[in-house]
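Lab meeting, item 3. Inverse folding demo.
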């Protein structure tokens, strides 16, 4: 039995009918079978008239009590002003400030038709990275050096005592720097003296190498470096410094 509706939109009989439904944006989504009781009306977002056939680049929306085509460019785009990714969710024509073309990996700008390198931004980024990398190297070296020299005066006193005892051919009274160390390490005074001198020499070598690595920061000022080369040099210097620190901790 065919269900009919009066001018007010209420069913004059009960039964099942095919309806055409929209989502919460008014976009056609699907058809369905709906039961309507006499005196009842269609559920919200349901309509009796069928929408037109789908069309590429458009969605079908309900507006002014009819089905209409609406441009659909929803998706991922990029701002021509900033290059930032934008999720465009509105219906209608795409705004002029958006493009589907992804920006370059390096600093760039929109020239009206495509992304091109922004030489000014590249130069500015290079200078900022160069300055930051040099500061990082100095700070990393200072942090390591402060660990090594935390008890520097004690190290120097112990080294001086060891050198004096060795000069005396390991004879006579030796400093407590040596004897106390020898007792705790269960060594004789001569062996303890030689170990102190070996450790002192090793530390001096590490300090010299740390200074050499820190001076490598001037490699970052070499002409015609790329950002990638700048990063690589910085990372290698930090890596070598960390290796020196590890050698100190294991030594």
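The presenter then showed the designed sequence:
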């Amino acid at each position: 039995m065919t269900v009919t509706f009066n001018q007010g939109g209420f069913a004059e009989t009960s039964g099942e009918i095919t309806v055409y439904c929209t989502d919460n944006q008014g976009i056609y989504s699907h058809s369905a079978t709906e039961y309507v009781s006499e005196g009842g009306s269609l559920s919200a977002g349901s309509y009796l008239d069928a929408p037109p056939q789908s069309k590429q680049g458009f969605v079908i929306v309900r507006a002014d009590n009819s089905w209409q085509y609406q441009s659909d460019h929803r998706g991922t785009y990029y701002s021509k002003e900033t290059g930032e990714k934008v999720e465009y969710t509105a219906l209608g024509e795409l705004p002029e400030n958006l493009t589907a073309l992804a920006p370059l990996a390096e600093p760039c700008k929109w020239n009206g038709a495509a992304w091109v390198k922004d030489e000014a931004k590249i130069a500015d980024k290079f200078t900022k990275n160069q300055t930051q990398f040099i500061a990082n190297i100095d700070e990393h070296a200072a942090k390591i050096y402060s660990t090594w020299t935390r008890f520097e005066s004690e190290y120097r006193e112990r080294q001086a005592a060891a050198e004096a005892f060795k000069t005396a051919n390991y004879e006579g009274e030796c400093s407590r720097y040596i004897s106390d160390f020898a007792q705790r390490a269960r060594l004789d005074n001569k062996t303890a003296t030689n170990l102190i001198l070996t450790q002192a020499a090793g530390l001096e070598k590490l300090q010299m190498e740390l200074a050499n690595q820190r001076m490598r920061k001037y490699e970052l000022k070499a002409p015609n470096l790329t950002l990638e080369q700048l990063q690589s040099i910085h990372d290698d210097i930090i890596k070598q410094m960390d290796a020196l620190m590890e050698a100190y901790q294991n030594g």
